[in-house]
Amino acid sequence: MNSDLLKGLNEHLKLEFRAAHEYLAMTIWLSAHDLPGFATWMRQQSSDELTHAQRIIDHLLGRDQAPVLPAIPAPPKTWKTLEALCAHVLRNEQEVTASINDLYATAEKAKDRPATVMLQWFVTEQMEEEATARAVLGRIRLVGNTGVGLLMVDQELAGGKVPGMPAEPAPAQG
Ligand code: FEO
To answer: Which terminus in the chain has less CB density within 10 A, N or C?
Structure first.
């Protein structure tokens, strides 16, 4: 494997593990603030980030390359507001997207087909994750950090209705 690509994939692991760690810290904060829907969303996100790191580790192992596990800084324990927490999630996702896009360009330059195919999955995943984070932040900006509107958004998230991309239009009949 191209050395820049190997280095980049190993460095990317840090972003996924850091996000998993921070989203778990957010789960704890959200639970303490009586927002079980948001906590459920963040718990799932934390778990997803671990599977993202695992995908890259498996790719490296499958190609006889050595994954190097990073040191992860302790996550924040508190956020000033729910809006600040949601903005933090969006920033994380944008950072992950930028890293994936850089890795994709490196893989293409190196003509590394297997890595390009593996990274293609991440390109699509990041588009969805960013859209969801942006949509949740937008909801909070609409309803504010307290009140009935907030409870409604929390219930939506508790029911697994994570806002995100607009629904596809139904196919035309006939
Ligand atoms: Fe794996 Fe949310 O980036």
So the answer is: C
- Domains of the chain plus CATH, in order, are 3-67+79-158 (1.20.1260.10)
Structure token digits, residue 69 = 């596990």
State the Cα–Cα distance between residues 112 and 43, nearest whole angstrom: 34
pTM for the full model? 0.90
List Cα–Cα distances, 78 to 72, 88, 125, in angstroms. 18, 12, 27
Identify whether the C-beta of residue 67 lies closer than 8 Å to the C-beta of residue 10.
yes
pLDDT digits (tens, 9 = 90+) for 8-58: 999 999 999 999 999 999 999 999 999 999 999 999 999 999 999 999 999
* Centre of ligand 1 from the C-alpha of residue 28, in Å: 19
Ligand 1 atom 1, closest CA: 49
What is the CB neighbour count within 10 angstroms for residue 114? 12
Q: What is the token pair recorded at 34?
A: 């009586």
